[in-house]
Amino acid sequence: MKTVSQHLINGRFVDSHGQDTVDVHNPATGALIGRSILGDEVDTERAIAAAKAAFPAWSATTLEERKRYLQRIADALTERMDELVAMTVAEYGAPAFFAGYMNGQARDFFLLAQDVLKADNFEERYGNATVTKVPLGVAGLITPWNGNPWFIAGKTASALAAGCTVVVKPSELSTLQTQILMECFEKADLPPGVINVVNGIGPVVGNTITHSSDVQKISFTGSTKVGKQIIRDATDTMKRVTLELGGKSPTIVLDDADMDKAIQFALTAGLLNTGQACIAGTRILVPESRLEEAKTAIRTGIEALAIGDPQAPDTVIQPMVSQGHYERVQSYIRKGIEEGAEILVGGEGKPEGYEAGNYVKPTVFVGVTNDMAIAQEEIFGPVLSVITYRDDEEAVAIANDVAYGLHAYVYGVNKERARAVADRILAGRVMINEIVDDPTRPFGGFKMSGLGREFGIHGLDAYLETRTVFAG
What we know:
Ald_DH_CS_CYS, alpha/beta, Aldehyde Dehydrogenase, Chain A, domain 2, globular, 15 helices, seven-stranded mixed beta sheet, 2 domains, EC 1.2.1.3, six-stranded mixed beta sheet, single chain
């Protein structure tokens, strides 16, 4: 069993001042695999002070110097990639193929960040005015458990490229993965204080970061409820805030679609990361006239999904990250039944043979109306709702009739028609007939799904402030 008892502060590992602990269980087996000592306000204030002290020198580095440091981090991650993937499988329960992809992209964020380090992205001339973009200062980065290394890397790479120093508060459910990341950051040998990482819980470490007058920027990924509190707290010190929050994404299957292909597409979108993804397409909108075809295709598609050991190469359905989250998903399945929806496949309880882990049966409801809780609230598990519509107008109305607006999917044969539907959906990203991930293009949400954008030049801009100097 591994114990994590230190934080990365001012370029070195230091023992935790906080003494609260959290046990780490393998979600596939329930076995205890680790224990972490969590940081407190003192640890967090030390990290903030280190980042503040390091900022003047780091913000003055040249773009070429930052590129070299970003490359060092990428190289360190490459050396530890196999370990990081294995720990993501063990601690989080992610299928091996997904853990490999996710951590590979975490490394790539530091490579891609080098591409935006161009002088034109930091300075423009307009007559006698020079417009420069300057780093904000200390950035507080608060990340979730559903892809912890990926989120830490994406935010950290953009912040460092911009010239900011950082204090990272990872999820307390991901401390074993975070330990490997911290060791990679230390190996990269950046100037002391540029990257600081404090393991801990949101109400302690997160709140200290959010309330500190020495932190100029917050980037948070997580629930809409917490995001609202962060932006309220940040107003006291006028922090710049980027929020990537919840989602309840629709997948619109148009009536000209090949139903078998369309449902395979919809199930892939809906069960991304076993539904533990803010972009998961958990509302499947199908033409009323083709509902029976869709139901048949769903049954066939779900039966083909491999549930099992996350280390197995063909596993698609993973366990929920914790017992508590398993219970949350079960409560939504019960709520769907209580609301009058019909279970087409799945249901309450664990799949046969997987009673030891936090496994949820992939569950699809039909007879769902868009006002039901299972159609409006983010469940964050393998629970999908099928909603029927009569025409494109109604499909768009249903898709937009939700508090969120992070992501959406459209599937149809007529590309012009599919694009016309996509253009009317209120979401930060819409994918037509494909599921792709491009970390160079802006990512973020409309409505309750957040504020601001991440990735690429947009991610860089989120850590910069604009100054205009007029020279007569």
